[in-house]
Amino acid sequence: MGTQLFGRLAYVFALLSSVALMPHGAAAAEANFFAGKSITLIAGYPPGGGVDGEMRLVARYFGRHIPGNPTIVAKNVPGAGGAILGNQLYNMAERNGLTLGMAGRSSFLLSNIVPQKGISYDLTKFSYVGGAGGTNSILWLRKETGISSVADLKAAKKEIVLGALSPRSQNAIVPKVLATYEHWPFRVVHGYRGFNDVLIAIERGEVDGLLSHEGSIQNTRPDMIANKTVKPIFQTFEEFPDLPLISDLVTNKDEAALLGMLNAPSQIGLPVMGPPGIPADRLTILRQAYMRMVADKDYREDAEKRGVPVGRAIDGADIQKLIAATLTSVPEPVVKEYLAYTESDSKSEK
């Protein structure tokens, strides 16, 4: 009897052990899957632009960090702000982890909530690998305004003129939203060719400040921060401990939804993604490899040299959650309001 019981227990133990080992064995098989293979990495824009440049940088380094060191083949499928590539990835690409894309930034990431023709994909269902260009945006004001805090900003009676690039850029729309809802005395002047032109305008006293990605001043004109020509007032993401978050300053739910919609693409950057349904273990391998790549010293130095935004890396699983939370269920009035803000105002053109 004891021998039979022992035999049964041994059999159950062996069975449980084999089951416990199965995920590890499956993971190992997935890791071996990439050996000797090629991954096609596709940009949703034509050669020569920023999206293409970032795609080719990833193509150069990504394979080094994937088990089996697959070859990365760069390709372009341009059109409709990345939507053509999005349609192909979603509806036509094999779901095996060997076809990935970098469709685009803001316009692509807003494509499921801002009306566009020819969209046949659901942003929430792509297999996101990671994004490396997430950047914090900061409101910088020149010292002559006398404003050095949010309290000063709220109490300001004089018009504050902010320089921006285009009517559709975040640095133009966010201040307009805050002027509408918080009644802060912002007036946006857009039409500058680049941030450096805005910084020159600040030095000349033509404008009072700008809302910019963190690197636009820190990397190009750190002297303006060191000599306190400009001062930071608030930030988009929690990075500097003594700087207020814009999300803590808003007072209206529609305003919060609109700002969340505007700021999410900046947090994500330019994501690497695949079609829905890539096997989970295989997708985990790709995500881990991506995070190793963006931490690679050689990758980061090359990115800086090429002028490719590195920012803070965000894992594919976090991208999936962020898109589900901010870029899928924006109320229709908020979308209409966004579209109204993007329309060119001839009075505010430079």
List keywords for this structure.
3-stranded antiparallel beta sheet; 11 strands; 14 helices; D-Maltodextrin-Binding Protein, domain 2; 3 domains; alpha/beta; 350 residues; single chain; 3-stranded parallel beta sheet
Task: Give the name of the CATH architecture of the largest domain.
Answer: 3-Layer(aba) Sandwich
Q: What integer value in Å does the Rg equal?
A: 24 Å
* Number of DSSP-assigned strands: 11
What is the overall shape?
globular
Per DSSP, the total helix count is 14
Whole-number mean pLDDT: 86
> Strand content of the residues, in percent?
15-25%
Output the CATH class name of the largest domain: Alpha Beta
In the sheet with the most strands, the strands line up as 2-1-3
Structural class: alpha/beta
The largest sheet, given as strand count, sense and whether it forms a barrel, is: 3 strands, parallel
Could you state the order of secondary-structure elements as H and E? HEHEHEHEEHEHEHEHHEHEHHEHH
Notes on the protein architecture:
This protein has 14 helices and eleven strands. The N terminus is likely disordered. The longest helix has 32 residues. The protein is α/β, with parallel strands linked by helices and 350 residues long. It is globular. The strands form four sheets. The chain has a three-stranded parallel sheet with strand order 2-1-3, with helices on both faces.
